[in-house]
Amino acid sequence: MMDLLGLSEWAAIMLSLRVAVVAVICALPLAIGVAYLLARKRFFGRQLLNGIVHLPLVLPPVVTGYLLLVTFGKQGPIGSFLEQVFGISLGFRWTGAALAAAVMAFPLMVRAIRLGIEAVDPGLEDAAATLGASRTRVFMTVTLPLILPSILAGAVLGFAKALGEFGATITFVAAIPGQTQTIPSAIYGLLQVPGSEPAVVGLVTVAIILAMGALLISEWLSHRMARRVGR
Amino acid sequence: MLRICVQENQGQFGLDVDINAPAGVTAIFGRSGSGKTTLVNAIAGLSRPDAGKIVVGDAVLFDSAARVNLPPPHRRVGYVFQDARLFPHMSVRRNLTYGGDHDAAHVIEILGLEPLLDRRPAGLSGGERQRVALGRALMCDPQILLMDEPLAALDAPRKAEILPYFERLRDETRVPIIYVSHDVSEVARLATTLVVLDEGKVAISGPVGQVLSSPDVVPLLGTRTAGAVIVTRVAGRLLDDDLTELQFSGGRLLMPGQLGEIGQLLRIRIPAQDVILAREAPTGMSALNVLPVTITEIRPGRGPGVAVGLRAGDDQLLARVTRRSAGRMELAVGQQIYAIIKATAVGPEDIGG
């Protein structure tokens, strides 16, 4: 299989992995925070927040990509701010691909983690509070360990989504080989070129292996964790 | 020692109580929905009453007038929940020390927790869980201990196994305890003070012996559960007949089995429906315990029954007879009569240290 993959295919694979890993790592803390808010707090605008979080799930990915382009692109309000103040450029860079992947994966991560938080008995948190634990300590020592399996599930789901993300990415950052060309856009690109089926087969195989691998590892880890939290 | 004055309105349900509790175990008794848990949650700070004042010793936990409302972690309240609420991802040892390790060795000793320390909550029995929950609450050095029906989820043998630990705790710590229950036997065994809640209000309160032997309490507790509590001393044994002789101010009682040690104080509860009244000292009957008593109060109930308050020596007893019998016997306050108590009327769950 290795000889099916040329240099540019390997570049797409490594880029996809980097984009997906960075997207999940950056989005995870925010997803935990938002999931906690949605699961445990009643506040004004909760439904609005819920709607915004889920928007990337229901919008056409091209629309999400377009919205990213006009806000985070070079001319966009946030994009130009980031570029001027921090020197971070997102448009047509791998960082932009990571942002697009994170935005698309975000609702899936929030949903998985929120289910986990809702399954934790708030009585346990009350008990910890009466034992003198601050809110932060309650969260870190009771809530967080109990929802680790669902955080993991959310992370794997997000990783798989980030690996496969196509529409928003190609709209926001195009498919520049070595820069923003991930596995899906590389496959799509190769399909336009006659005689490149071997490379396509190689990339498709890699995509399947990555997805299956992530799934198996997460099953195994969550099984171990579930045993550790005594369920 | 402890002042709990709380007003709260939750739609149809209202809570309006003002309780002054002395040291020792204050039992909050009432049917489900009478506001017991709401009251305890207010003390712990898990719910916020509309108005009121909660003071433990010198510490003001809540005072709506002065806008004081300490958050739960700052209240130093040890809360033992009905469902234990142990942290499932921690060992028993880590559960115990989560809030602190005050007096750890002693707590582990009196609750018999040593063999459980390295186990996980999922592998514990209901009784063991409650012991761990109690130990955990004690180790955070609470200034008050709240116990919300800690035995309600347990079957009778588990209860019997854990009650002696509670009695020992009551006798060995100086922490005031609020004990919520709807089980009269538990209350009679453990409580020093009893507060009966009815529809969010204090119906009656006072020393447990006094409250339980008051005829007023019969309709609140239900005719089957009402009964006086007296403190007796183990005076002797009738080994041949497997009976224990108990002495109290009103005379002596014979109870089945080998109870306590000679000289030990035992509390026993005598259900009102198991006390028979007679105008003359009966002869030729099987009941062993006949006590001369004076009628202090006669209170007709809503049904066919009458609650009769009796004084035996310095103690109060309570009997429940039908209105018809009371009329036929011409019972009257101040009358000297005889109370007959079957030795088997007092079950093992009604006898405590």
From TrEMBL, chain A:
Any one GO MF annotation of this record: molybdate ion transmembrane transporter activity
Task: Give the membrane topology.
Answer: Multi-pass membrane protein
Alphabetical UniProt keywords: Cell inner membrane, Cell membrane, Membrane, Molybdenum, Transmembrane, Transmembrane helix, Transport
- Main location as per UniProt: membrane
User: Looking at the keywords, is Cell inner membrane present?
Assistant: yes
Q: Where in the cell is it found?
A: Cell inner membrane; Cell membrane
Q: Which GO terms describe its cellular component?
A: plasma membrane
Q: Where are the transmembrane segments?
A: 12-39, 51-72, 92-110, 138-160, 199-221
Q: Which residues form the ABC transmembrane type-1 domain?
A: 13-216
Instruction: Name the job this protein performs.
Output: Part of the binding-protein-dependent transport system for molybdenum; probably responsible for the translocation of the substrate across the membrane.
Membership in a protein family: Belongs to the binding-protein-dependent transport system permease family. CysTW subfamily.
Protein name (record): Molybdenum transport system permease
Q: Which organism is it from?
A: Yoonia maritima
UniProtKB/TrEMBL annotation, chain B:
InterPro entries (UniProt xref): AAA+_ATPase, ABC_transporter-like_ATP-bd, ABC_transporter-like_CS, Mo/tungstate-bd_C_term_dom, ModC_ABC_ATP-bd, Molybdenum_import_ModC, Mop_domain, P-loop_NTPase
Write down the PROSITE patterns for this protein, in alphabetical order.
Answer: ABC_TRANSPORTER_1, ABC_TRANSPORTER_2, MOP
Domain Mop residues, every copy = 284-350
Which SUPFAM superfamilies does the record match to this protein? MOP-like (SSF50331), P-loop containing nucleoside triphosphate hydrolases (SSF52540)
State a GO cellular component annotated for this protein.
membrane
Q: What start and end residues bound the annotated signal peptide?
A: none
Q: Which SMART domains match?
A: AAA
Q: Which Pfam families match?
A: ABC_tran, TOBE
Per UniProt, which keywords does this protein have?
A: ATP-binding, Cell inner membrane, Cell membrane, Membrane, Molybdenum, Nucleotide-binding, Translocase, Transport
Q: Which domain of life is it from?
A: Bacteria
Q: Which GO terms describe its molecular function?
A: ABC-type transporter activity; ATP binding; ATP hydrolysis activity; molybdate ion transmembrane transporter activity
Query: Which residue intervals define the domain ABC transporter in the entry?
Result: 1-224
NCBIfam families the UniProt entry points to: modC_ABC
Can you name this protein?
Molybdate transport system ATP-binding protein
